[in-house]
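Kindly inspect this today.
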Amino acid sequence: MLGEYLIEGKRAAEIAGSVEHAVGAGKLEPGQPLPPMRELAARLEVNPNTVAAAYRTLRERGVIETAGRRGSRVRSKPVTTARELSRPDVPPGARDLSDGNPDPALLPPLAGALAAAAELSDRAPTLYGAAAVDPDLARLARADLDADGVPDGPVVVASGSLDGIERVLAAHLRAGDAVAVEDPGWHSVLDLVPALGLRAVPVGVDSQGPLPDDVRAALADGARALIVTDRAQNPTGAALSATRARALRVVLEEYPQTLLVEDDHGHRIVDLPLHPLAGTTRHWAFTRSVAKAYGPDLRLAVLTGDTVTMDRIRGRQRLGPGWVSRLLQRAVVELWSSGVVDTRAVASAYGRRRDALIGALAERGVEAYGRSGMNVWVPVPDETGAVARLLHSGWAVAPGARFRMSAPPGLRITVSTLGPDEAVAVADAVAVAVGPAPARRYV
């Protein structure tokens, strides 16, 4: 089962360390099965509970995964080989369309908002025991949520969308639980889930969002949670349509115990309407960050959800960071109140850049997708070769491997800073690098 490698150790920490070292050194390969716990315990002459504790530690670290009767095996994408490592090195002179960042020119100046927040803090400093959420932030956030049809619920503030998603998952799930995730999907979520000791189950995506049949199959197979990106899905640009949202609600109504997590990070940069799924299941959470519209360094996201979930998050937060800086919260209030970001203009700018590239690719017989947000997804037969050829041509794009589990290969091209004349040049380079691509599932 393990070839020539022998797991060693008498204590749980030693056994876990032996396996983790072998994975890092390449002596245990991704997907390789591990011995049943009783078998390994007998060979090492230790109590089976010791091996069980070692395997549990390895699951929590994201090194191995357990699939019921099929036993435990090394993860196919171990956390020790993070997806970030597949980011291409961008040589001097190359144009970087791989980073997924917003256009700095479309971000608002922060000096005024931060100064106003600091002045308020000077007059009334936030001290221990103060409320974790600024009341004005909660009021403005709740008004936005109400306008978009998100059900009523407490407002919690986290340090960005990923922090919020992690807190929601940790509030309900245990190591070994399965989570249905979009495939292709946000690489940080695909790394986060196994890092929490959870098992990621891929769900296909098209331009309208997760495929209902895939979601139903994942939930029927035991997935306890579902993570959905409402708009500006990374990397495909998918956005939930009204029709798709209705179909997904039907599926979720069949599995009301599912923990539903929605990420609307595209809020204020997308002109498509929101079609929330929130409230369909017993436990749910909905998160919105300010990163894309106001800047990634504003580490703040607003969450709402059912009372039990939000209470658990607040309770755990009090035992860790305590709260997200009220100074930062107040700065966001200043930004929201001032209307400094023309959301329609920002959404229109990103839309024009997406459409320009998708249209230019279509003229060259290359299919590409991007219904919302700042990214375009291009299915390709050989993404490694395509990335290399594009880099040689002076264009750095993100390989699809960063975002995929079982989905077909592809490239993610960030169009946020793409100039009007560049779309044609990029399309020419992509057409040469990949050739015309046959129709695939992203429609």
Summary: DSSP finds 15 helices and 15 strands in the chain. Confidence is low (pLDDT under 50) at residues 437-441.
